[in-house]
Amino acid sequence: MLYTLTNFQTMPNKRSRRYRKQKFYCPYCQARLWRAGSPKHYIYYQEISDIQKNLNISRKKASFLKNQNNTYLDRSSWIEDFCCEQHGKMWLKITCKVDRPMQVSLASEDDWKNTTGTINPNVPNPSVSEFSYSMSRRLKIQS
Ligand SMILES: [Zn+2]
Fold first, then answer.
1. How many A from CA of 93 to the centre of ligand 1?
2. In angstroms, rounded to a whole number, what is the distance separating the alpha carbons of residues 111 and 13?
């Protein structure tokens, strides 16, 4: 499925300036990290329960957002490429919600599944080969 950015709920971006000078630190050695300059891969939610949980809103409001856009793009949560002098490149998930401390963690497989990025660049794409495998099996059974 393809989503266009214009269809997503957009949120006021007033606070972005405040976070620009945020420093990031390596989860392994606590050294200062440098932005590797990748685009931000924003997180989106497709389940009402995920929208509700992550935005901390009522179920009614979450289901309203879901009905509006089918999927909700969370502009306060994204995966970005960083670089540590010792540990090299790493993908971090960053969440900065209004009035809450910024959360930084290593991006998990689950995080990647819900981003605007295509797929986790750290692992080869397994779904393609699995798909063609099951397709070829099916074709063999039919013939
Ligand atoms: Zn490090």
1. 16
2. 23
Question: How far apart (Å, rounded) are the C-alpha atoms in residues 56 and 51?
Answer: 8
Q: Distance between CA atoms of 131 and 81, rounded to whole angstroms?
A: 29
Spell out, as residue ranges, where the chain has pLDDT lower than 70: 1-21, 117-143
Domain ranges of the chain: 5-142
In sign, the C-alpha dihedral spanning 101, 39, 72, 114 is negative
pLDDT digits over 34-50, tens only? 998 888 999 999 899 99
**Cα–Cα distance for residue pair 76/39, rounded to 1 Å:** 14
Protein residues with C-beta less than 5 angstroms from the ion ligand 1? 26, 28-29, 31, 84, 86-87
Would you state the pLDDT for residue 106? 93
